[in-house]
Amino acid sequence: MNTVTINVESVPLPPWTDEIKDFVQRVLAILGKDNWDLSVLFCNDACIRALNGRFRAKDEATDVLSFALGEWDRDRYLPGDIAISLDTLRMNASYFGVSEDEEIRRLLIHGVLHLDGMDHTGNLSAGDDPMLLLQEKILAAASLTH
């Protein structure tokens, strides 16, 4: 059984927290993951910019960051943490013409895939990056079971 913990920094706890936990559980099931203890942080642009600067030496806000730990604690796997800026999420949703709900699901999948060891290997702008293609397949599959 997987566990998903939601935390907030500089933003109020979203009312859809339980739905997000259920969605991440479905994503992990689709990927065949078990015994994962995953943490998700929702924050604002200032917070994620500070994280991005501290851990990636990039002085800019971003939509999602994944901090891989990749350790076992007895029978539990600690993959790491995902941080998502709700400010940038809203801007992305508007820019891409999708709902905030769809964009948050996309970012959660993206973060999980990074924690699972995936990284970008294709041309992001050409749309042929294997990680992003898998992300969209998982989004469709996890949304069908919603």
Q: Looking at this structure, what is the CATH superfamily?
A: Metalloproteases ("zincins"), catalytic domain
The strand count comes to: 4
Structural class: alpha/beta
- Give a quick account of the main beta sheet: strands, pairing sense, barrel closure: 4 strands, mixed
Overall shape:
globular
Which CATH class applies here? Alpha Beta
Count of structural domains: 1
- What's the helix-strand series? EHEHEEHHH
If you compute it from the alpha carbons, what radius of gyration comes out, rounded to the nearest whole angstrom? 15 Å
Count, helices: 5
Which regions contain 5 or more consecutive residues with pLDDT less than 50? none
List keywords for this structure.
5 helices, Collagenase (Catalytic Domain), alpha/beta, 146 residues
Question: Can you describe what's shown?
Answer:
29% of the residues are buried. This protein has one domain: Collagenase (Catalytic Domain). A four-stranded mixed β-sheet has the order 1-2-4-3, sandwiched between helices. It starts with a strand and ends with a helix. It is of the alpha/beta class. 47% of the residues lie in helices and 24% in strands. It is globular and about 40 Å long.
